[in-house]
Design a protein that fits this description.
The protein is an alpha+beta fold and 454 residues long. It folds into 2 domains: 310 residues, Orthogonal Bundle (2-methylcitrate dehydratase PrpD); 122 residues, 60s Ribosomal Protein L30, Chain: A (2-Layer Sandwich). The chain has 20 helices and 8 strands. A 4-stranded mixed β-sheet has the order 6-5-7-8. It has a two-stranded antiparallel sheet with strand order 1-2. Strands 3-4 form a two-stranded antiparallel sheet. The longest helix is centred in the N-terminal third of the chain and has 21 residues. It is globular and about 70 Å long. One of its GO terms (molecular function) is lyase activity.
C-alpha cells in the first residue's frame, strides 16, 4: 500500500490514531451526538415503516450478536445496524452538519454500525467512542470536501457507508491495509439518491440503514481477506469520478488535528432540515401576533433552489402522510402558523391530515430566489384580510453551529424522545441512559450501555 494515496491516508488515520491523540472536544462531541442519535432512534421505533421491517428481520433470526434498540431482541450485527439506523433516521430528527456544499447526518449511520460491532466483539466503551470519533470524522470530512454541483446522491448514505466501514474496521482491529480494502468494498455498495426525499416515500428512512449495514459488511469482508480497489476515492472509476466530485486537499486539511463533526448540529424540529428556517420564521410570526387561520389572506415562503428541490414540491400526503409532512415546506409553514409549535406530534398522520392544516398548507405560496443558491435561509410573509403584512427572515438552521441549541434544550430533547417509542423509558431509566452515554468512555463493556433498559 502506497502511504501517499488519499485512500491510504484516510485508512491510516482511522486505524493508527491513538486514543490519547483524540482532542477532548472531539470525544465530547461524539458522546453528545450518540445521545441525540440514540434518543431520536428510541422515539423512531414506532414510526411508520419501521415496525413491519423490524418484525420481519427479527423473525429471520440469526446469531444473537447485537441489540435491536428498545427491544429485548438480539440479532446479527449487520441486521442490528440496519434496523437501528432506520429508527434513527425515521423522524428526521437526527443531528446533521450542514454547509453550502451539502448536509450529512453522520451519526445516524455511524453509531448503529459501531455499537452493533462493539457488542459483537466485546469492545470497551473507550474503544467505541474512538470508533465514533473517527467514523464521524470521515463522514463529515467527505461532506465538507464535496465539490459542487450536487449530482443527486443522498450524501448521508454515500458518505455514511465510509464512516460506518471506518468505525467497524477500528472496532474489529483491522490494519490500515485491510481498512483501505474496506473502503474499496464500501464503494461497491454505496447507494441511495435524493429521489425518496423528493417523492416522499418511506424508503427514505432506510437510506441510512443500507449504509450502516454496508459499512459493517465491508469491514467484515476485509477482515476475511477480501481485497478491493486500493484507490477507492481517487482512482479511475472511483468514488470521486462516479459518485460526487470532491476536493482532496480540503478533505485532508487538518487530518488528525481538527475534527469537523464537533460542528454537528442538534435538530430542533423533526423534519428535513431544509424546512427548519421556514418553521422558525413561521413560529416567530405566530407567537409575536397570533392570527386565526380564517384571517390569513396569503402565506408566502421564499427559499433557495437547493431547498426547493427537496421540500418545495406540491404538498400531497395521500400516500405517506408523515414523510410528506417532513419534506414539505408548505406543510411546515402551515403547521407552525396553525399550532404555534412543531414537534413529533405534528408529523403524526392524524395531525398531518387535519383538515385545518391541509387547507392552510394549500394556501402557502412558494417562491424561489435563484440568487440564494444552496442557502438554507427562508423568508415567510403573512398577509391578513385586514390588510396587515408581516415578514420574518431566518438565515440559519436552529441547532446549527451558527445558531446552536442550549445544553438544557439538547438534554430535554433527549429525555422527551426516550420517553417515546415502542418501549418508553421511565424518568429514572432515561436519566440512567443519559448518564451512561455521557460516561461511555468509562464503561468496561460497551454492551452495558443498554443493559436493563429494554
Amino acid at each position: 500500500m502506497s502511504p501517499d494515496t488519499l485512500t491510504a491516508r484516510l485508512a491510516s488515520h482511522v486505524i493508527d490514531t491513538p486514543w490519547d491523540a483524540l482532542p477532548p472536544a472531539a470525544v465530547l462531541a461524539a458522546k453528545h451526538m450518540a445521545l441525540d442519535t440514540l434518543a431520536v432512534a428510541w422515539a423512531g421505533t414506532c414510526a411508520p415503516g419501521i415496525p413491519p421491517v423490524r418484525e420481519a428481520i427479527i423473525d429471520e433470526g440469526g446469531k444473537p450478536q447485537s441489540a435491536v434498540w428498545a427491544t429485548h431482541a438480539k440479532i446479527p450485527a449487520r441486521s442490528a445496524a440496519f434496523l437501528n439506523s432506520a429508527a434513527a433516521a425515521a423522524l428526521d430528527f437526527d443531528g446533521m452538519r450542514a454547509s453550502e456544499r451539502g448536509s450529512v447526518h453522520s451519526d445516524s449511520v455511524v453509531l448503529p454500525a459501531a455499537l452493533a460491532v462493539a457488542e459483537q466483539h466485546g469492545a470497551t466503551g473507550r474503544e467505541l467512542v474512538a470508533a465514533l470519533v473517527l467514523g464521524n470524522d470521515i463522514v463529515t470530512r467527505l461532506g465538507a470536501a464535496s465539490a459542487l454541483p450536487h449530482r443527486g446522491w443522498y450524501q448521508t448514505s454515500i458518505y455514511g457507508i465510509m464512516g460506518a466501514a471506518a468505525a467497524a474496521a477500528r472496532l474489529m482491529k483491522l490494519d490500515a491495509e485491510q481498512t483501505m480494502h474496506a473502503f474499496g468494498i464500501a464503494v461497491n455498495q454505496a447507494c441511495s439518491t435524493q429521489l425518496p426525499n423528493i417523492e416522499r416515500s418511506l424508503v427514505k428512512r432506510y437510506s441510512s440503514a443500507f449504509a450502516a449495514q454496508g459499512g459493517v459488511l465491508a469491514a467484515l469482508l476485509a477482515a476475511r481477506g477480501i481485497t478491493a480497489a486500493r484507490q477507492a476515492f481517487e482512482g479511475r472509476f472511483g468514488f470521486y469520478e462516479l459518485y460526487q466530485p470532491g476536493e482532496p486537499d480540503r478533505l485532508l486539511e487538518g487530518l488528525g488535528v481538527s475534527y469537523p463533526h464537533v460542528e454537528t448540529g442538534v435538530k430542533r424540529f423533526p423534519s428535513c432540515a431544509c424546512n427548519h428556517t421556514a418553521i422558525e420564521a413561521a413560529l416567530h410570526l405566530s407567537r409575536e401576533q397570533p392570527v386565526p387561520p380564517s384571517e390569513i389572506a396569503e402565506l408566502e415562503v421564499t427559499i433557495s433552489p437547493y431547498v426547493h428541490r427537496l421540500v418545495g414540491a406540491p404538498f400531497d400526503p395521500s400516500s405517506d402522510p408523515q414523510v410528506a409532512a417532513q419534506f414539505s415546506v408548505q406543510y411546515s409553514v402551515a403547521a407552525a402558523m396553525l399550532r404555534g409549535r412543531f414537534g413529533v406530534g405534528d408529523i403524526e398522520p392524524e395531525a398531518v391530515l387535519d383538515p385545518a392544516a391541509l387547507e392552510l398548507a394549500r394556501r402557502v405560496a412558494v417562491h424561489v430566489d435563484e440568487a440564494w443558491g444552496n442557502s438554507r435561509a427562508a423568508t415567510v410573509v403573512v398577509r391578513t384580510r385586514a390588510g396587515q403584512r408581516r415578514e420574518r427572515h431566518v438565515a440559519h438552521i436552529p441547532g446549527s453551529r451558527e445558531a446552536p441549541l442550549a445544553e438544557a434544550d439538547r438534554r430535554e430533547k433527549a429525555l422527551d424522545c426516550l420517553r417515546a417509542g415502542i418501549r418508553p423509558l421511565g424518568a429514572e431509566q432515561a436519566q440512567r441512559l443519559v448518564g451512561r452515554v455521557l460516561g461511555l468512555d468509562g464503561l468496561a463493556d460497551a454492551g452495558e450501555l443498554l443493559k436493563d433498559l429494554a
